Amino acid sequence: MKIVAMGAVVAAAFVSTSASAQDIVQTFNGPRIELRAGWDNPDIRATLQDAGNRVSQSADKSGVSYGGEVGYDFSPDNKMVIGAYAGLEGSTVKACGELYGADRLCVRAGRNITAGARVGVVLDQKFLIYGKGGYSNGRVSVDYRDYEFILPDENVGRTFDGFHVGGGIEASVGSGVYGRLEYVYTNYGRVSAETDVLTASLKPTRQQVVYAMGVRF
């Protein structure tokens, strides 16, 4: 009877330990999907050039980024998480102003596509501290209207490649639901959109602070 009792205790302890380990794995393991929104701060610059004259307008503008992300995470040892992700987001950021008079120039930060990987460490079975990095593809659009009809109206957009790095903290809410707060820095390199009379550019840096809510399957 003592042997049976001791066996039962050992089995129970083994099951409890296994269940605890499984909880850690499942907390940050598997496919996921999320919605994202937050602060977006690209530095937008616009230039109008005509007959040798050059007038510039710049604005360090802030706005809201919004979108979604899908990903897959793998926790090989219940302590470290390795994952991959892809996302799509838009932005409300735009700068508009008068250049020569009786005209209007607007530069808009458009959609942004991301793909990359992240590595993190699990804390207390409920929190994940991680760093991330990967590829970015952004878009900028330019719209110029001359109300005196001296210069032609223009509307042009261009996509451009870059990279992003960042980090954040993710918390398990329960039942596969998680919340995440992260900072992302993006560098697009030299970016410009040009027509016969317009040159618009998105400065090579962009900063974002984003909150996300998602579900892990």
Automatic annotation (TrEMBL):
GO terms for cellular component: membrane. Its main location: membrane. It holds the Pfam family OMP_b-brl. Residues 10-196 form the Outer membrane protein beta-barrel domain. Residues 1-21 form the signal peptide. It is found in: Membrane. Keywords: Membrane, Signal. It comes from the Bacteria. Belongs to the Omp25/RopB family. This is Outer membrane protein beta-barrel domain-containing protein. It comes from Sphingomonas aurantiaca. The lineage of its organism: Bacteria, Pseudomonadati, Pseudomonadota, Alphaproteobacteria, Sphingomonadales.
